[in-house]
Amino acid sequence: MSRRLARAAKGAVFPEDNDSAFLLDVHRRAVPTEAMPHYRDDDEVDLVIVGAGAGGSVLAQRLARAGWRIVILESGPFWDPDRDWVSDEAGQHKIYWTAPRVIGGEDPVELGKNNSGHGVGGSMVHFAGYTPRFHPSDFETYTRDGVGADWPLSYADLKPHYEKVERELPVAGQDWPWGDPHSYPHAAHPLSGASELGREGARKAGIEMRVGPVAIPNGTFGNRPHCIYRGFCLQGCKVNAKASPLITHLPDAIAHGVEVRADSHAARVEVAGDRVTGVTYLRDGVERFQRGAAVAVCGYSIETPRLLLLSATEGWEDGLGNRHDQLGRYLMVQGASQVAARFPQPLRQWKAPPPEISSEQFYETDLARGFARGFSIQTVGPLPIAWAEHVLADGHWGRGLREYMRDYNHWTTLGLLCELLPQARNRVTLADEHDSHGLPVARFDYTQCDNDRANIAYGTKVLETVWEAAEAQDTLTIDRYAHLVGGARMGFRPEESVCDRDQRVWGLANLFVCDGSVMPTEGSANPALTIMALASRLGERLGKRLVTASAEPAGAASYTS
Amino acid sequence: MARSFREAGHLPKQSADGEPRPPEELPRQRAGLTPQMHGRYPDYDVLAQADHWDPVTRELLESRAREVPPVTVFTAAEEACLRPFLDVVLAQDAEPRIPVFEMVDKKFAQGKLDGYRYEDMPEDPETWRRVAAMLDRVARERGAPSFAALDDEARDAVVDAFSEGELESEDLNVSRAWSVVMRGALSEFYSHPWAFNEIGFGGPAYPRGYMRMHQGPQGREPWERPEAFEEDPVIDVPRRGLK
Ligand SMILES: Cc1cc2nc3c(=O)[nH]c(=O)nc-3n(C[C@H](O)[C@H](O)[C@H](O)COP(=O)(O)OP(=O)(O)OC[C@H]3O[C@@H](n4cnc5c(N)ncnc54)[C@H](O)[C@@H]3O)c2cc1C
Ligand code: SF4
Question: A368: CA distance to ligand 2 center in Å?
Fold first, then answer.
């Protein structure tokens, strides 16, 4: 579609080969599963997917459309938003991955509610909803800036999939001037009063902010109701307005023969020779084995390396894909410090979706700043508990804390996403401790490098400048992290990565990794759209047999996309 | 008025002595309850909106507002220390109190986890136990039989040192322990509908949603109530010697 046509059709374009939005029920929020097939454990399906999250669900939907028979094993429950979810910050604790994990290193990253989800839909059930693309530079930071790593594929490889996924979620936002300039299928949402102040302050400080991009349709979308601006996006959208694979990809996948097997925790990927044969999993305390012609591990940046480590076996003594001690390494988080600002008029920052406006003006390297790569700026909308953590982090307790809390409605908050660099020492290993299934839990060590510290410090100064320009009366700052990616990165050679450019684990012809853990760098964009675009690309290539799960090396021709 | 609640002068970082303006100078809560009845939104009761919430959320929040869970995890000695500690860190110096101690106990009784543990820290319930033991030990070093036996000023001093990571402990990383107990306490306190009343939070919003997103009074939903910026004459007039 030409750009002019696309603009005229804003809000009226539906994806061509994904009917999810129309397969949902009009009167209840749960995904209809009456027609879902059930495969026997000993039935060798075409693909076993571990994890019904961003990567796993998109891969399943693409391949189901290509006729593959697929089972998704999901450790968590199959959510019914009407019955299981509440419109409450504390009451939604269950959607997070809260099983034990150990954290270490010099700058440990707190996990739990701040990272991965548990249950059908994965972490996007509680993601904020920002869906920016990566910039073309993200795929070659080593060549351009001498830091990080080059990806074994380019922006051009992902671009058609970015566009496709943006239509499926769909994404709403203003025309996007940064990176590869583009527009969005839905017009930008109206702006809340709280975010207007951020945009105005930024403008005065010489920084451009734009509305979006968010995975919340502007209006209804198929059978999905419109957003009611209630601000609970990080608690799961009871409305079905905010996108998550639970409603954007799994309905269509199920309609095309995918079985989503919830409450099924994968314990091991089984190997025979240079091929995997299926997945051993635990359901109701019973160990079972699902046979599959191929396996895709899509369990999130921590659980994916953990499962591959737990699958160690003869010939793979240190874990699958770990002959060169690469597995679990180069795990990244983004620096996500936030600065809140106080104004005389009430602002009620808890209204409207937390993701509203963003700037990518500082995304690329500018050596005058004294460090490589950059950051983006985005709005956030902390609910009361998150706001209390923010006030605490600024050093308040007792009467001082209560006073800042009572003042909640006068505040608005901007956050950073700083690109922190991949480092071999930041990695997942197995701890001595065991989870409720009796399996060793993950340990995640994290230490920043000097470039990381300089980036976060600079970004925080910029936020302070914005609030000064807006004439804020007081500010409160919290240092935090967001968005884990990496840990099973793709690369050019097995010596420096876990999988190849088709996300196939080196040395195991029919084992794929399809989630955020394959990412070699993280950019300063939120990762979900890129994770989905990667899955869409892999699905297309497998479906068209441009890459096959067979032991024969794929011909050179099949490696051009 | 330098310290009005409308402007920023009532906030600790904007006042000369680093102290907030005393909340006793706000009106008393008139609708529903707030912890200690401070009324920044004196006529706002979020629970009065419960009919507009979906049934699952309504059930959860109404029971949270009603319930004082039984104590089953912490010992009597731990309770004797942690209760006054929580009163200090949450400034709950009078009734009605949000039963944070009981709520924390219930969370541990249910075995609820937060998804991570620092390599040099024990499980969360054990951290709370060791914090209680540390506070009592510090109190003894300062000449009192226990933390509970300290006077207000001495308790504040101990808690202040704790918040700065300045207490000694052989079995705890003290600043991490501060973060664990404070975040545990705040997660309970600010999940309680009385706290929503106090801070003017709209609370559950499904299926009704919010419709007014503007700055200032225009942004108030029809069912929200205005903020009280001015002092309560019943307290203020006698205090200034006018009556
Ligand atoms: C508070 C918060 C806000 C966020 N906001 C944004 C945002 O605005 N924009 C954005 O782009 N990103 C955001 N993210 C991040 C984003 O949600 C994730 O990066 C993304 O969903 C990860 O996708 P994934 O496919 O790697 O894994 P997931 O989507 O997490 O899927 C993994 C699935 O695998 C399952 N699983 C794991 N191990 C096993 C096992 N052994 N057996 C069976 N199943 C298993 C898990 O239960 C889970 O359902 C946010 C995250 C958080 C925490
Ligand atoms: S603000 Fe909109 S998208 Fe977010 S949870 Fe509410 S209805 Fe859903």
Answer: 40
Cα distance between residue A519 and residue A505, in whole Å: 14
Query: Is the beta carbon of A249 within 6 A of some atom in ligand 1?
Result: no
Q: What is the 3-state secondary structure (H, E, C) of A383-429?
A: CHHHHHHHHHHCCCCHHHHHHHHHCHHHEEEEEEEECCCCCCCCEEE
Are A88 and B60 in contact by the 8 Å Cβ rule? The answer is yes
Query: In whole angstroms, what is the distance from residue A263 CA to residue A93 CA?
Result: 17
Distance from C-alpha of A305 to C-alpha of A327, rounded to nearest angstrom = 6
Cα dihedral A34, B207, B65, B78 sign: positive
Question: What is the interface pTM, i.e. ipTM, of the complex?
Answer: 0.95
Cβ–Cβ contact A27 with B under 8 A: no
Which candidate from B159, B179, B210 shows the least CB-CB separation from A229?
Answer: B210
Domains in chain A: ranges and CATH = 3-543 (3.50.50.60)
Q: Where are the beta strands (DSSP E) in chain B?
A: 117-118
Distance CA B231, CA B229 (A): 7
Q: Closest to B215 (Cβ–Cβ): which among A345, A392, A400?
A: A345
Tell me the sheet residues that pair with A130: A214
Give the DSSP H/E element, type plus range, for residue A281. Answer: strand A275-283
Question: Is the CB of A227 within 6 Å of ligand 2?
Answer: yes
Mean pLDDT of chain B, nearest integer: 93
Cis peptide before A346 (omega within 30 of 0): no
Instruction: Reply yes or no on whether the pLDDT at A556 is more than 60.
Output: no
Contacting residues of B for A80, CB less than 8 Å apart: none
Largest CA distance in chain B: 61
Average pLDDT (B31-60) is 96
CB atoms within 10 A of CB B160: 13
d(CA A468, CA A470): 5
Residue pLDDT, tens place only, B59-75: 999 999 999 999 999 99
